[in-house]
């Protein structure tokens, strides 16, 4: 797929990295189901996104694996440069030793998530996180300070967000909180398998490995994802204040249940409809051997992708089906340094990347779903 934009001053620009998100009321969303990091974006110059698809590239995905005349090119992450295409400046996380601190935002959620915006958060609430890291001491300390964090919040969705691949609760009663540390932000590739005859999504390599692997004739497709690990569950005080501190080995950042975390990706549900996407999380934790290191966090920052931090509302006792992955009810989150704002919630004009201070009222709601696919090659 090729994605580019026309700016209002008639110039064409292309993003250096594209994330698959849906349109919404905050800058984490881009038009037509994608989010872009643009190499140029002058203040006051609106950009309209245009999506085009290389027919040859799509058809190469649709052919059975044994029938491909030309194999798909290997996907390799971009070499870190230390340059952020969002901030238009160098954003350098010092290698091996350092401190990184930044605020989290509200209203920054992917498609179909519960966007938690409670009055205590909107009226004077805040969240700040800090990493203190030392490779020589093999230690990473993560801290977070909250004001206005809802205490034992309850919420019930009007719908069931579960998919054939992931189960989610529709309701949380007197919930607790959990923080997610995303050290590879869509620069972590993983293999997804599709039925060799129907083209239907079967699952991720790590999930299928638990049931004997993909069936014969399945079509493998390498797709980018976000790898993140969970902290232990916590809660704040009834007044909304909270402070947490967790420590990790620099060279072996595993989650609180001993796994390598989860991989979240936006993947086609069917190969012949390549832009009809679903959110997919690996289940039960990927092997600990696939763990992140803090070098991954530093490299991801310095390559311009940005690391992700999110705070999710979880059942006080997480069900087994949510092991190592988050409930999609999220309060504070951000991508740093790509979304280093002033603590306000933002929105953008529909179908453009023209960001303005948000005018819609604060309130917990559900983010719009991923848009349906436009391209359909299923017909004979």
> With helices defined by DSSP (H or I, 4 residues minimum), what is the helix count?
4
Please tell me what the overall shape is.
globular
Which structural category do the helix and sheet elements fall into? mainly beta
- Provide the domain count: 1
List SSEs in N-to-C order. EEEEEHEEEEHEEEEEEHEEEEHEEEEE
User: Biggest β-sheet: count, sense, barrel?
Assistant: 9 strands, mixed
Mean pLDDT: 77
Summarize this structure as a short list of keywords or feature phrases.
380 residues; mainly beta; 9-stranded mixed β-sheet; 4-stranded antiparallel β-sheet
Could you characterize the architecture of this molecule?
By secondary structure, this protein is mainly beta. The protein has one domain (about 95-365). It is built from four helices and 24 strands. It has helices at about 55-60, 120, 205-210, 295-300, and strands spanning about 1-5, 10-15, 15-20, 35, 45-50, 85, 90, 95-105, 115, 125-135, 140-145, 155, 170, 175-195, 200-205, 220-230, 240-250, 260-270, 275-280, 305-315, 330-335, 345-350, 355, 365. Strands 9, 14, 15, 16, 18, 19, 20, 21 and 24 form a nine-stranded mixed beta sheet that branches. A hairpin with a 2-residue loop joins β18 (about 260-270) and β19. The longest helix has 9 residues, at about 295-300. It starts with a strand and ends in a 14-residue tail after the last strand. The model is unreliable at about 1-75, about 85-90 and about 340-355 (pLDDT under 50).
Quick summary:
Helices cover 7% and strands 37% of the residues.
Secondary-structure blueprint:
Elements: E1 2-7, E2 12-13, E3 17-19, E4 35-37, E5 47-52, H1 55-62, E6 83-84, E7 89-90, E8 97-103, E9 114-115, H2 119-122, E10 126-134, E11 139-147, E12 155-156, E13 171-172, E14 176-194, E15 201-204, H3 205-209, E16 219-230, E17 242-248, E18 262-270, E19 273-281, H4 294-302, E20 307-314, E21 329-336, E22 346-348, E23 355-357, E24 365-366
Parallel strand pairs: 9-21
Antiparallel strand pairs: 1-2, 1-5, 3-4, 6-7, 8-10, 9-24, 10-11, 11-17, 12-13, 14-15, 14-16, 14-20, 16-18, 18-19, 20-21, 22-23
